[in-house]
Design goal:
Blueprint (H helix, E strand, L loop, with lengths): L2 H20 L5 E6 L2 E3 L2 E8 L6 E11 L4 E6 L5 E6 L2 E6 L1 E6 L8 E7 L1 H9 L5 E8 L3 E11 L5
Parallel strand pairs: 3-11
Antiparallel strand pairs: 1-4, 2-3, 3-4, 4-9, 5-8, 5-10, 6-7, 6-9, 10-11
């Protein structure tokens, strides 16, 4: 094989590998409910339970898949309890949630209820930490999407 052709082939393979590594095509479109956009950030609000000191929050996701069979992951702040309503099922857990989304079997809304620990709730209310929920969808090799939702206490009068 000609050396120029071999060099061109190596460059082409390197560019293709780089493109596949850096491509971020969303596997689905997502609409939020109870998530607000402020100062270039997605925000959901918590309500502090006066009896327990925990911070309770709720939001919804409307997922419209573009590809079949991708993974949805939701990562909460450490120690956060959650209940995810996915169709007729409810999933309970702590810290992170993951499910395989099938194109024809997606519920109209996915509801996410979460409860922050009393310690983290105090820090969020005082503004000492930026607590976040990370939502990721992926299907190898090209399909990736992620969003960060900041958790805040709603300002009085809002």
């Amino acid at each position: 094989m000609d050396k120029r052709l071999l060099g061109l082939l190596i460059v082409l393979v390197a560019l293709l590998a780089y493109a596949m590594k850096t491509a971020k095509l969303p596997p689905a479109t997502v609409e939020y409910e109870e998530v607000y956009y402020d100062n270039n950030r997605s925000i959901t609000y918590i309500v502090v339970n006066p009896q327990t000191g925990e911070g309770d929050g709720l939001f919804g996701l409307k997922i419209n898949p573009l590809v079949d069979s991708f993974e949805l992951r939701i990562k909460f702040p450490e120690g956060t309890k959650y209940v995810v309503g996915y169709g007729n099922e409810s999933f309970r857990g702590v810290d992170s949630f993951s499910i395989k989304v099938e194109k024809g079997k997606v519920p109209e809304w996915v509801y996410v209820q979460f409860t922050l620990s009393p310690e983290l709730t105090k820090k969020v209310v005082r503004g000492e930490v930026n607590a976040t929920i990370e939502i990721r969808m992926s299907k190898l090799p090209l399909w990736r999407w992620e969003d960060t939702i900041y958790i805040e206490k709603q300002k009085e009068g809002s």
